[in-house]
Amino acid sequence: MKRLSSANDGFFSISVYFLLIYLAGVYYHYFNRFQLILDIRMNLIEIYISRIQQIIN
Questions:
Q1: Can you tell me where the transmembrane regions are (predicted)?
Q2: CB burial class (10 A; 0-12, 13-18, 19+) of residue 16?
Q3: What CA–CA distance (Å, rounded) separates 8 from 23?
């Protein structure tokens, strides 16, 4: 059986490698941003709860 693309195998593998690294970086960027937003919301909820408890007491 004849190989179709023997001259560009190295370039293809390096391109796929860099593409996967880029996609992993984008994933971790948005994951960290999502975690930061969740942390801020949880802190705000805790502040509101403590203020409400101060008003009640």
A1: 12-31
A2: exposed
A3: 22
Contact 5, 12 (CB under 8 A): yes
Residue ranges making up the domain that contains 51: 28-56
13 within a domain of the structure (yes/no): no
Q: Among all chains, which residue has been given the structure tokens 């390096």?
A: 14
Q: Read out DSSP for 13-25? A: HHHHHHHHHHHHH
Q: For residue 50, how far is the Cα from the chain centroid?
A: 31
Q: Is 40 within the bounds of a domain?
A: yes
E strand spans, 1-57: none
The pLDDT value recorded for residue 54 is 92
Q: Which two tokens stand for residue 56?
A: 């009640």
Residue 48 lies in a domain: yes
